[in-house]
Amino acid sequence: VIPQSDIIKEVWMPLAKDPALDIDYYIWALQMYIASLIAAGVVPEPAIITIFVRVLCRQCKYADLFQFLETKFLPDSIMVSYEILREAEARKKTAQINRESFYHDIGALRNFGMEMLWRLGEKVQVVRWLLEHSYVNEALNICSRSNERGKWGGSMEYLNSDSISGVDFFDAALKACED
């Protein structure tokens, strides 16, 4: 049995760098590889899912990505959620520069990344990511809902100054004003 990490390193990474490769065929082959792993009862490594997400985003195949995420074809992982969030922010910057109208896709990408982190129980990381990217109101809304219920999303994790400091909110607010 060949480890997934070796297949990623020896097959998928070199193929991605081949300029003569038909990208649609590459996407199809990646999809079939992931499906075969799942059918065999093997959880795909986050690295292969990250490659898949990256390729779909680079080709602006957001509808395909959303379908894979909605059907849970792509398993949740912290690495994948951060890749989705990174792609959303990168796309936001290029859309602003090029005056493109992909804001719906950007928002959907961000939501999928956040929801994946949420399902993984990384609730504090959701708020931290929002603050790092100057989404102060969204972070405050999440924290205020936490305080109203006493618990966040049914978990035992409280959002208080032990998990998110007031300084983080202040810094994010200053950064938002500068942008």
List keywords for this structure.
0% strand; mainly alpha; 9 helices; 179 residues; 71% helix; single chain
Please provide a written account of the structure:
The protein is mainly alpha-helical and 179 residues long. Helix content is 71%, strand content 0%. It is built from nine helices and no strands. Helix 5 runs antiparallel to helix 6 (103-119). The longest helix has 21 residues, at 78-98. The chain is globular and about 50 Å long.
Topology:
Layout: H1 4-16, H2 23-39, H3 46-58, H4 62-70, H5 78-98, H6 103-119, H7 123-132, H8 136-149, H9 166-178
Helix pairs in contact: 2-3, 3-5, 5-6, 7-8
Give a short overview.
The chain has helices at residues 4-16, 23-39, 46-58, 62-70, 78-98, 103-119, 123-132, 136-149, 166-178.
Number of strand elements: 0
**Residue-averaged pLDDT:** 82
- What is the gyration radius calculated from CA atoms? 18 Å
Percent of residues in helices comes to: over 70%
Number of helix segments?
Answer: 9
Helix-strand category: mainly alpha
Gross morphology is: globular
Query: How far from one another are the termini?
Result: 51 Å
- Give the ordered list of helices and strands: HHHHHHHHH
Q: Describe the biggest sheet?
A: none
Q: What fraction of residues sit in β-strands?
A: under 5%
Low-confidence stretches: 147-156
